[in-house]
Design brief:
Blueprint: E1 2-3, E2 9-10, H1 20-33, H2 40-51, E3 56-57, H3 58-67, H4 74-86, E4 90-94, E5 100-104, E6 112-116, E7 122-125, H5 128-141, E8 151-154
Parallel strand pairs: 6-8
Antiparallel strand pairs: 1-2, 3-5, 4-5, 6-7
Helix pairs in contact: 2-3, 2-4, 3-4
Length: 163
Amino acid sequence: MMMNANGSPQDVPPDGSLQMAPLCAIFRRHLKEQNLKYTPERADILNAILEADDVFEADSLMQRMQDQGQRVSKATVYRTLKLLQEAGIINQALFDAKQSHYQLVYGRQPSDYMVCVQTGKYIRISSDELMEIRNRICREYGWEPVGHRFQVYGIAPNDPADD
């Protein structure tokens, strides 16, 4: 079951796709609560995130937008990412100490990762068993789960394709 930004159950389209309109409305509502405006730049950033296939870095997001002819500053990207986190649309997945990585979380199953501490390479893992363990632990303590983050750090096997 998917959870929305408020931690309530949410239906997801059968194809797993997200629509811009609901996320836009959530983001607008959050900005209004903060007495901030929904600017064209913020809309462009949200759209670029929706187009991202996986985890992304702020700098790569900004570069991709600039490559598409959009004018956006680094400060605007970072401020907007913070606001999107506060709205529950994205979260920060720290894979290394050098660079923050972000992922779209609204309307998606939680993503867990294995991260190589030598190369920074990561792979997404999905496990129903992890979800069951999380839910069991929450039940034992009387908690209602609304999300989680699970990352395994290790050393990946040598991949001849990487050499």
